[in-house]
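Form 12-C: Joint structure prediction
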Amino acid sequence: MRHIYFARAALALALGIALSPAARADETALKSEIDALRAEVAALQASVRQMQAGQTPAPVTAPPATAATPPSAAAPAVSTPAIAAAPPIANDDALTGTTLWGYGELNYNRPTGDAGATQADLRRAVIGFGHSFDESTRVYGEFEWEHAVASADDQGETEVEQLFVEHSLAANYGVRAGLMLIPLGLLNEHHEPANYYGVERNFVETAIIPTTWREGGVAMYGTTDSGFSWSAGVGTGPDLGKWDPASDEGRESPLGSIHQELQLAKAHDLSGFGALNWQGIPGLLVGGGVFAGKIGQDTPDFPADAAQLVLTEAHVRWQPGPFDLSALYTRGTISDTQALNLTYLGQPTPVPKAFWGGYAQGAWRAVEWGRSSLVPFVRYEEFNTGAEYAQQPPGLGTAALPTERVWTAGANYYLNPNVVFKVDYQHFNYDDEALGYGNRFDLGLGYQF
Amino acid sequence: MLAVQAGGKNLDVAGIRAVPSLRYLNFDLPFFFQKDGTPTGGFNRDGRANDLIEQARRPFLAAHEMANADAASVTDKLSRAEYADAFRQVFGVNVFADVETAFLAALFSVASFESSARELHPFTSKFDLFLRGRLVLSMPELRGLALFNRPDKGNCAGCHPSTRQSDGSPPVFTDYTYDALGVPRNPEIPANADPAYFDLGLCGPDRTDLADRRDLCGQFKVPTLRNVATRQVWFHNGYFRSLKDALHFYVERDTHPERWYPLDATGVPDKFDDLPEPLRRNVNTQEPPYDRGPGQAPRLNDSEIDDVIAFLNTLTDGYDAATGTADPARDVALP
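Section 2 - Result
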């Protein structure tokens, strides 16, 4: 039941922050936002001047810092500046333009108890693009290579992480369709390495919320003057038929092992998702979301065809002055797994009925030298990918997995706001070699543009 | 019941291996080595045929099977059979003009039957109904399934996967790999009268292309376990006459070797006696249930073995829910 205390603690923190009158935005973040806006205004002025002179106006392609931007290309929610405020313009057509962006990260992990398992990896290299067809319609794409080499004989992967068309219906709302990031958590839509602390993405938002989680579908999004941003949509969901009870993948990340990534995805059962965030006080973000759907995908003779997934999440982030504090709690349930798990008796990885995780994190911009800064941080996580299993006949049930608890302490050194060197140490409550749990020392390099 | 069947014109030429089942053979793959070197796929117990057509060729000609002198002998008989006209209708009026063409047509016919005949891969066992959520197994059967799957107990699913495949199709209960189990030498096989003779599976004597791969000697193909309870003899050399004995051997081979192997003059069991001494190291002794030694408890006790047998009985095709009986010869409509 510790997760309930965790949820209460996260809620208390959220309320405490929401009620705090002294909330102040991080100055650096504000500065960068102002820089971005300034560049945007300059571009607009140039357009107006050109129009007045009867010339073809230059496109305005700087992404606005709202939920209407493509998630990955959006101004990061953390205390790092937005992406280049005035991207190069590569198209002469009226009100059109194309931008390129990207990020990458290289990691080094040295388990303290098993130095022989030390590993260095080009974790990912990503290229993205945005193209404006006109003032209201855009397309965004993100292409990724993982683990340096992808071929039939290698372990790397090549994947399309996002590919969607977005159309503004009005100044403060619009619609997008395609392969989109699910708007849950703090990381999934902002997974670039300069946007999070620590060499590795946190466990809660990889094991429970399977960052980078994307589905194909249609969504509405928008903002309000009172500081709310929202999105809601329908799309594909996971396929429980992909569950492999003999492998460790389902214990590593229940949803990560069955999401379909729009690869010939079974799409009979659509899922719905929604998220609501409030940023009414500068420096404060409070929000949450839900993803729900049937995940049996109408598979013939599948004993869990009726299975329903519900994943809920709540988060809060407060950035007073040089501090960056955040907390997140998420919990997922999968119904109607009893008959399916019966066929998996004795297998190491049955389908969980419940899984959850939460973390609290504090970071401090301790030192700044011009555009460089050093940000030490500490994070505490608890998560359980098999917190509960459907009841089985006496003697044949599966025991819940132990809850893993991880402390991570380290620092991000920003050479500039978009290039980051990272170092941290992670301490695990218990080891599991198959899942990569074990105390370790990590080094990382990341960039984004 | 003979451990190995006799063949030849007078049914007096002994075979060297127990007859494998033809059921579910259509799902097998051509022989290949996985990236980690694991031999996989292939037909016959040593995988030397790459497809059903190649596999069908041997029984027509082998001395201890149909013992035809050559392909011409087969096609000559075929051309005089009462169904020869039907054969001509399918393959052409001149099909018998060329021996190889006619022989290939015959092999193709056999392979086509094995691929298409539903009775050879019906998926109509009690376990199939259970996988579809149509019924629940009894407690002994469920316990047996759990023991079959558990990596620390039977670990049977390690080679005989019991879960749906990634494409959603039901399990065939083999991963098409090979293993050296150290099954005791069977004195009932006449060839074994020669102490210098050994059936080494992947590296001979029937298969010749891997003769130099001494590390593979003693490995035989993992068979499907569907309908396993209906067999009369078990393992490649038919040494075991009951499923219960076969299961006891799995878990007691290493804890009580004296029960399975002949004792030498000093009373020490001659473990893995069906392999030459230098090749006995090829036998799988690492994974459960083989990872035990004398004095240790077997991975499965007697009542657990009974549960596993109860489960294995659910793999028999032709299950009739009304009577609770199964018979592979019974043609049960798919529910």
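Section 3 - Comments
The longest helix of chain B spans residues 99-116. Chain B touches chain A at residues 35, 130-133, 136-137, 139, 142-143, 145-151, 153, 157, 161, 163-164, 166, 168 (CB under 8 Å).
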